[in-house]
């Protein structure tokens, strides 16, 4: 993948008509991103999918079943690819640690490539991902926990080996910040006030990936105990509580 800018075009023609199941999923994905799960109606979803509500019940059982399948369709291929790449890297490394740069690439590149590659065809994906973290009902949160459980365990194990058996709490913090970098990168262009970029990362995918990987790798390698970050005077940084009162 080069650094040439990517633009949205018409894409290849001659694609086959998607099945009713796929049309329902595609419409639900767009509408969940736009309205949120609770506000989205099956009537609107089926109208845009050129299907009927009976089809939703046939393929997914209920609206809840449709909601879960929309998010599984987004999450499962990413984590399947990550776990496959981890297995390959583990086999290559044998009993040695997987090199940290490879771990970082395995974590970040699969989900970011989906967002970059689908930027034109599915521009609503960042908002859908944002809703997954912000206003998802309990059934989605439970499903997300289940879908990410194995992936989180594997990455914590491999990070521990690659970093020389650091304390588990430190490893959890590092993985937590990796997730933060990933989510912020995917969402920032959807919410312009959060972004300092003047372009969508998908327009310069190789460049953006290098920046993300380099920043994450530097943070993961850093031992927090080696830094002069005394917290003895942290009270001097406290914001005056008055700022939370009435505006002057």
Structural account:
Helix content is 62%, strand content 0%. The relative contact order is 0.11. The protein has a domain at 68-224: Tetracycline Repressor, domain 2, CATH 1.10.357. It has helices at residues 20-35, 42-49, 53-60, 63-93, 100-117, 125-134, 138-162, 168-188, 205-221. It is built from 9 helices and no strands. By secondary structure, it is mostly helical. It is globular, with a radius of gyration of 21 Å.
Write the layout of secondary structure elements.
Elements: H1 20-35, H2 42-49, H3 53-60, H4 63-93, H5 100-117, H6 125-134, H7 138-162, H8 168-188, H9 205-221
Helix pairs in contact: 1-2, 1-4, 1-6, 3-4, 4-5, 4-7, 5-8, 5-9, 7-8, 8-9
Overall geometric form: globular
Oligomer: single chain
Helix content: 55-70%
Number of helices: 9
Labels describing this entry:
mainly alpha, 9 helices, globular, Tetracycline Repressor, domain 2, single chain, about 250 residues
How is this structure best summarized?
This protein is mainly α and 248 residues long. The chain is built from nine helices and no strands. It has a domain at 68-224: Tetracycline Repressor, domain 2 (Orthogonal Bundle).
